[in-house]
Each structure stands twice: as C-alpha cells, then as structure tokens.
Amino acid sequence: MDYRNIAIIAHVDHGKTTLVDAMLKQSGTFSDREIIEERVMDSNDLEKERGITIYAKNTSINLGEHKINIIDTPGHADFGSEVERVLRMVDSVLLLVDAYEGPMPQTKFVLRKSLALGLKPIVVINKIDKPSARPDEVVNMVFDLFSELKATDAQLDFKYIYTNAKAGVALANLKDVPKDLQPLFDLILATVPPAPQDMDKPMRMQPVNLAYDTFVGRMAMGRIHEGTLTEGMPVTVIKLDGSRERHKITKLFTTHGLRRTDVERAFAGDVVHITGIPNINVGETVAQDAEADALPAITIDPPTLTMNMYANSSPFVGKEGTLVTSRQIRERLLRELETNVGLQVEFPEDAEYVQISGRGEMHLSVLIETMRREGYELQVSQPQAIIRERDGQKEEPYESLTIDVPDACAGTVIEVLGRRKGEMTHMASTHGTTRLEYSIPTRGLLGYRMAFITATKGEGTLSHVFSHYGPYKGEIVRRQTGSMISGFTGKTLAFSLANLQERGTLFVGPSTDVYEGMVVGASAKESMVVNPIKGKHLTNMRSSGSDFAINLTPHVDMTLERALEYIEEDEFVEVTPKSVRIRKRYLTEVDRKRHGVKKA
C-alpha cells in the first residue's frame, strides 16, 4: 500500500470540513449502519456551536491500494499555528476557495506557508452552486495570488477542480454532469506524489500535534519519515535544544476514518499516534538510532496579543464555579501548554496574575470559554498587542485586513479605519459590494468588530491575518464612550433601567444581580456611577401620568468576545460558568474621584 498525505487548507467557512464529510461518505469509509453527523470532523463542542474548525484533526480513506491521509486544518487565522505544523508532514494541499469570495487573508497566509515548503497545491473552487458564483474569475484570482507570492513555475502550473461540497459533487469541467466526488479522487491520485517509503533506514518521525488521553497519557501525532515503527520499540528523542532522551513506544495507533486503531507496526509515509514519551513536544525528533540526526525544526509564528488572567475577586466569587483559586488556574494553564502549541504562558514572580499570549482574540477567548465550561471562575484584563524593540525602534504587529461591505457603508468604514491608523492597499466594487484591503496595526483592530457590525447593519464581512511587524504608529483611540458603573449591590429594576437607557446602551436587563463596581452599560459620554436598583417612590397620592408603562429597549447581551473588545485598561472581564460580567478595577469613592468617574 502506498500513502498520499494531504492537508485541506482554506479561509474560514469556505467548506473544508463539509468536503471531508463527503469524501469520507463516498469512499466507503463508513459502514451502512453508522449514523454520520454533519461536519463529523468538528468533534469539539465549541467547533460544533461556532461552525468553525479550531483544532487540526486527521482522518484517512482507502482508494483501492492507496491510503489517503487527510488533515482537516483550522480556517481562522488565530489558529494558524495548527496549520503551520501539519504542513510539514504532507506532500500536497487542497486549497479550497469560495467560488464567489475568492482568496481571503487566511487563504494567502496558508498558501504562502505551503509554497515556501515546496508543496504544489491542488486548487478546489468550492460552492459553485451559489447564485453569485464566479468560478472562472476566481481561478484567475488564485493564479494572481500565486504570482504575488512568487510561486515557482511548477507551482504556477497548478491543477484545479470545481466542487459543491454540500452536495458531494466534483467537476473537472463546469459543463460536466454533476455526479459524485470521483473526479476529485482521480485528481488526487494523479497529482499527489506517493510518500517516500525508505524502509532500509532506521526509523525517524516528527510530532506535529499533541493530545492527551486519560488512559494512555500524552499522545504525539506525526508522520514516519523513514523506516518502520513498532510497538515496544526503544527510541531516542532528540529535543529542540539538542539533548537526547531514551524512551519506549508503549502504544502505536493509525487512523481509518474517525477510528483510531491500535497496530503493532507502521511504515514510512504513514501518519501515526504514539504514546510512552511523557514530555514529548512538537518539532522534536523520535529516532530508532541513538546517533541519528534531528529532522528540521518546525517554526511557528510568535503570538501577537497578550492579556493577564487573575483569579476571580468580585463579590460574586464562588456562586457559580467550583475552581476559583490561583493555584487551580495555573495548573489548568500548564495542562493547556501540553497541547496548545501556539499559546505562551508566563508566571511572573510575586504577581497575582498569569500572563497568557496568543495569536489573536479568538485564540485566547476559546481558551477562556473552555475553562469556564470546566467550572473555572476567573477575570482577564484588556488584550494588548505585543510591542517589541528592534535596533532601538518600537515595532508592533500589523494585520492584512479584507472587508466586504455594501457600497453605501464603504465611506463610514474607510473613515473609521483611517482613525485607527489603517492604510488602504486595494479597493474595488462589484455587484453593489465594495472590497477593501488594508494594512493595519493589530491595535487598530482591537475592539472594532462590534462597531463594524453596527456600521454595516450586519451586512459586512471582516477577516484578517497577521502580516508582519512594522513601525509603531502611536496612540490609537479604541473607544469613545464611557461606562455606566453600578454604585450599589442588588437586583436591577425596570424603573431605574428605563431612566438609564436614555444615557447610553445597557448590558443588563431587569432582575439581574449586580454589585458595586460592575459595569451595567455604555455611557454616550464619560463614565459615571449609577443606581440600577432604585425603585419608584411610592405615595398614597395619585397624579396624572404617574402610571405610564415602562418601555425598555432590549439590552446588549455581553458575550465573551464582545466583552473583551469593549473593556478599557481599567476594566476586567469576569468569567464564570454561567455569566460574563465587566467590572471596574477601582471600586472605592476615592478611586472614582482619582480617575474622574462621575456620579449620575
């Protein structure tokens, strides 16, 4: 049997996981008795809820005598570290591109990584069933992108195919009659080179992904580059610092469909999971020969955002969660480091917080959301871009930003991005939609998504990916509103909220528990202390107009992502299993006066 190893890469929501579903179903991988869910590869609860892939996962299908190992990679830029690693163990990639949207920032990011490794992608133009699809035009856009990224002549001569992943069909030519995915299977076998199978050399493999299993411990997933790997084999682990350790492979697994199968032997070219090495890390080399050379190291782009994580210290601490201490939070983050390679965690001495750094707001928010579902209570500070110094000059991360908005909204978006230090690199209008491309500091995008949704009435799309480090752009104003801060503890009342909603936007509804120092809304002007629990003064006298009905505007439900975008430097997001609250660091009257917070 020969092995063909491919990764499916694309921008978020272009249909990677749906295509993998169809490939699994049509290859005969599942039996007739198995019930197959939609987006079956999205096994994590958060992935199913958000409809995106967060963690890279591998599967395989058999086509005759050929085993196709398929890696489903994340499409969101914040999880790019997952993509960077898996590209090192494949021989080709399927580059999925939406038949209407064309190449997007993440498409460019993952394609650049693929081309740099010398891979020759197969381009898949997906969602050709869209009424607005323009597949031939998108093929030309992809070719231009290849040229822009300085692809070689061989890479520029890429093969392409059209698909409707939802219907499970592929077409070599748009005039063909849609039937199934067989044209795609034929193209993979004809284009993807078989993995080299040098069985005479001693075994070497390199982990690109990590997992943890309650029964077998830490697992490493990677491709066998040379030789034969057997269960019980003594191996040498060559660490990233050059040191060597002796271990023994206790369990060996390969994948068929979604099933992990325990095997005694695996061969060069195959993708396997191994256990028995408790401190194995991504990029290290597992070798049969104690004197073997290390495989080339895997490099991952550094984090661009950082925030501080604290144990919850609000008056409501312990009401909803069971894991509330600093020690428990630190232990959980240490476990996260075992598998989340793109995350960095620092434990400053004598500090009450832990500093966590990641690739973007979603990368960090997924970690926080996972922890709250496990029963943790914590609070986090405002995300900050990581500023560095080079040759005596301050540098900050920049993002490649792509926006599609209705023509009528373009002017507003351009004005705001200009204030946020964005520089337009491209602008084009087609069919009533304007596409804007920007180079903008990461700081300029923090807190912008909510304002963007409001400005475009929910009709715009925004996507971005880390581009480079560039000159520091100076001060950027993120928020032009203040906060309404509760000066009392109790339950909110509709009478009080009706008066407060005239001053700005509320984050809480009636009968909500609040405490002194909790942010209950956004003020249109400066920050102010308010009383959201004040009731109507009752008397035994009746007067005209005293019994008018109270009309409350629906409040803004503060999700975790919205809260992280909203907060300023002097605010925390309090996260518990059932609630997301915003609170001021300064609670006392002296602190309020010092920081210019007025009373309503």
Automatic annotation (TrEMBL):
Q: What is its main location?
A: cytoplasm
Q: Which CDD domains match?
A: BipA_TypA_C, BipA_TypA_II, TypA_BipA
Which Gene Ontology terms describe the biological processes this protein takes part in?
A: ribosomal large subunit assembly
Query: Under the GO molecular function aspect, what terms does this record hold?
Result: GTP binding; GTPase activity; ribosome binding; rRNA binding; tRNA binding
Xref: SUPFAM superfamilies = EF-G C-terminal domain-like, P-loop containing nucleoside triphosphate hydrolases, Translation proteins
Question: What keywords sit in the KW lines?
Answer: Cytoplasm, GTP-binding, Hydrolase, Nucleotide-binding, Ribosome biogenesis, RNA-binding, rRNA-binding, tRNA-binding
Could you tell me what reaction this enzyme catalyses? GTP + H2O = GDP + phosphate + H(+)
Q: Which Pfam families match?
A: BipA_C, EFG_C, GTP_EFTU, GTP_EFTU_D2
Query: Mind telling me which InterPro entries this protein's record contains?
Result: BipA, BipA_C, BipA_GTP-bd_dom, BipA_II, BipA_V, EFG_III/V, EFG_V-like, EFTu-like_2
**Which residues are listed for GTP binding in this entry?**
D13, H14, G15, K16, T17, T18, N126, K127, I128, D129
EC nos: 3.6.5.-
User: By its UniProt entry, which PANTHER family does this protein fall under?
Assistant: TR-TYPE G DOMAIN-CONTAINING PROTEIN (PTHR42908:SF8), TRANSLATION ELONGATION FACTOR-RELATED (PTHR42908)
Subunit description? Monomer.
- Primary role: A 50S ribosomal subunit assembly protein with GTPase activity, required for 50S subunit assembly at low temperatures, may also play a role in translation. Binds GTP and analogs. Binds the 70S ribosome between the 30S and 50S subunits, in a similar position as ribosome-bound EF-G; it contacts a number of ribosomal proteins, both rRNAs and the A-site tRNA.
Name the family the entry cites: Belongs to the TRAFAC class translation factor GTPase superfamily. Classic translation factor GTPase family. BipA subfamily.
- Specify the protein name: Large ribosomal subunit assembly factor BipA
Q: Which gene encodes it?
A: bipA
